[in-house]
Amino acid sequence: MKKIGLMGCGTVADYGHIPTILHTPGLELAALFDPDPKRLHAARDKFAIPAAFTDVDEFLASGLDAVAITSPAPCHILNVRDALRHGKHILCEKPLGMNEAECAEMAGLARAAGRMLFTAFDYRFSPASLAIREMVRNGAIGDVRSLRLIYIWNNHGKYQQDAHGNRVLSERRVGRMLEGGPMVDCGVHQIDLARFWLASEVKRWQAAGAWVDDYDAPDHMYLHLDHENGAHTMVEISYSYCYTAKEPINQFVYELIGTEGVIRYDRGAKLFEIRTAQGTTALPFSPEKNFAGMYQAFAAALETGQSDTLPTAEDGLVAARISRTATDALAAQHREAARTRP
Ligand SMILES: NC(=O)c1ccc[n+]([C@@H]2O[C@H](COP(=O)([O-])OP(=O)(O)OC[C@H]3O[C@@H](n4cnc5c(N)ncnc54)[C@H](O)[C@@H]3O)[C@@H](O)[C@H]2O)c1
């Protein structure tokens, strides 16, 4: 049994990581860490976790084998430095770091410490994603030439209600927009899936953005990736689609277009199918996330010292590099255009 500690008792820890670790054979959730005692104690009490710390060194000295990092992205670098100083293996939420330099530092520190550092791209582990990977490998749609990966939504909406019932900006969405916006926060999953499914590195990228809202980063963004094998991926990501609508809707779609057919996945329609000259086959639908599959792979990695499927620090770095440079270039163009506009 491997003892896991969790750093950051917020939203994704509450619905994803904590319940999953508690149900994963071979893992024991031994301790929690959060600098905010209210958040820490709420999670400890809700899930009956034996130990909870606001002091990071006490937490990391409490006999853990590994940690899961589920703090906000700007905190990942500090959490990784601390965990590696104490010799822990790590599964860190995406985006791994705020930029390529942070990710490179984390990867270097893990290598030097001889510890495993994985990026928690849980979309990889969805049965639908793993089936797509198999179909691509087996040539089920021939040579895959084009991917359309779309996730346009409102990131829970522009507004929330404060304690007095007043409409105020949603802290969650403001935080994610200030951290870099939808491509840096969410699009890294799609960048990772394209590399995972095609097993082909991205050699060139370009992007376009739209500013529906008023932030430095574009809140609606298109990214075009050219892979070494000649395939092309288009990622469309938005945090402003229906962001003020009373009844918001969203679109979450994967389409893979090959020389011999098309694979289609549509979360909203619960549709997963392959269309070829032989006909159309409905495939078993599954949600896009799979924390359970990711933690089974983490448990196996902690036993064997390696993993074929868990995204590495390098995978986290590539996704951060592409999403961050593309977003920063657009933000710079946008500022320049605002400065020179008559
Ligand atoms: N993989 C997914 O599907 C998915 C989904 C949502 C969020 N995320 C990622 O998970 C991370 C957390 O997101 P969230 O929505 O749960 O955030 P959140 O703001 O709801 O929770 C973050 C928690 O971390 C705590 N924290 C603050 N500073 C810390 C520090 N220095 N060390 C440790 N903990 C600290 C906060 O007190 C809070 O309890 C982000 O990187 C986000 O991108 C991933």
What do you see in this structure?
- With 342 residues, this protein is an alpha/beta fold.
- The chain folds into two domains: 121 residues, Rossmann fold (3-Layer(aba) Sandwich); 188 residues, Dihydrodipicolinate Reductase, domain 2.
- 38% of the residues lie in helices and 26% in strands.
- It has ten helices and 16 strands.
- The strands form three sheets. It has an eight-stranded mixed sheet, with helices on one face. A six-stranded parallel sheet has the order 3-2-1-4-5-6, sandwiched between helices.
- α4 runs parallel beside α5 and α5 packs antiparallel against α10.
- It is globular and about 55 Å long.
- The mean pLDDT is 97.
- The structure holds nicotinamide-adenine-dinucleotide (NAD).
- The site of nicotinamide-adenine-dinucleotide has 25 residues, from α1 and α4.
List keywords for this structure.
342 residues, alpha/beta, Dihydrodipicolinate Reductase, domain 2, six-stranded parallel β-sheet, 16 strands, 38% helix, binds nicotinamide-adenine-dinucleotide
Short characterization:
The chain has 342 residues and is of the alpha/beta class. The protein is built from 10 helices and 16 strands.
Radius of gyration: 20 Å
Task: Summarize the biggest pleated sheet.
Answer: 8 strands, mixed
Total helices: the number is 10
Instruction: List the ions, cofactors and other small molecules found in this model.
Output: nicotinamide-adenine-dinucleotide
How many β-strand stretches?
A: 16
Query: What fold name stands as the CATH topology of the largest domain?
Result: Dihydrodipicolinate Reductase, domain 2
CATH architecture of the largest domain: 2-Layer Sandwich
Strand proportion, as a percent range, falls in 25-35%
